[in-house]
Amino acid sequence: MAGSQAGREKRVIRVRPLTEHTEFAEAVELQRTIWGFDEVELLPVRLFVTALKVGGQAIGAYDDERMVGFCLAIPGIGAGKNYLHSHMLGVLAEYRNAGVGKMLKLAQREDALARGIDLVEWTFDPLELKNAYFNIERLGAIVRRFVPNQYGATTSPLHGGLPTDRCIAEWWLANTRVLNVLAGKRVDHSNVIARIAVPADIGAIKRSDGKRARQIQTRVREQFLEHFSRELAVVGFERSAENGEYLLGPWQSE
Predict the structure, then answer these.
(1) What CATH number is attached to the domain comprising 9?
(2) Tens digit of pLDDT for each residue in 203-250?
């Protein structure tokens, strides 16, 4: 699949399934580069092999012959329904504004729908505001669940030593909301009844003031858990110079 362009040479990025052990090994090396994981936290080649054998997905994005991004999904069953859990998606830093992440997600969606799967889930850090905007406003995912410290402490410097709190994104692939978002239509936020604000400079705060970052994380966690206990869902995300704001309201599948 042809897609976005990156870098000064405007080279075309192509997305394709990963099937060979050598390709899985490239994805392992990308994990080291992107997240700085040590050996114990890397997803190994054998997990890629197993994921494909049991109905998962492994997809890579390439600039010529260089892998610049990948995603890995494993099958899941929830409430009697089959879905895909998108366990990891990573893109090299120099390609993150080239649309590579969206290309990978759209390839994931296309493959899932072809197999009769209409739900993909994944986790994301609620303090990573660019990811939140991408997931909610550019893909059309919603959020109804929150898991405190899901993965425990990690060795990645990107996590800043904070607990690994995670939102669970639900991407209902054939839902009207998703179809409208992918068609470039404006999402209706008229049903929003609550907001959760995160400072726009949270990344700098995590690097310079760990105590304040933890206080912000704790407040955000408590707000998510409170609102989700009232059966609200994240249905939108707004950005300003001061904050990123999660918009919550009622949600029903269509």
Answers:
(1) 3.40.630.30
(2) 999 999 999 999 999 999 999 999 999 999 999 999 999 999 999 999
142 part of a folded domain? yes
Nearest to 201 by CA among 145, 240, 157: 240
Residue 237 counted as domain residue: no
Q: How confident is the model at residue 7 (pLDDT cuts 50, 70, 90)?
A: very low
Global pTM reads 0.90
Alpha-carbon distance of 169 to 152, in angstroms, equals 19
Q: Is the pLDDT of residue 154 over 90?
A: no
CB 154 within 8 A of CB 37: yes
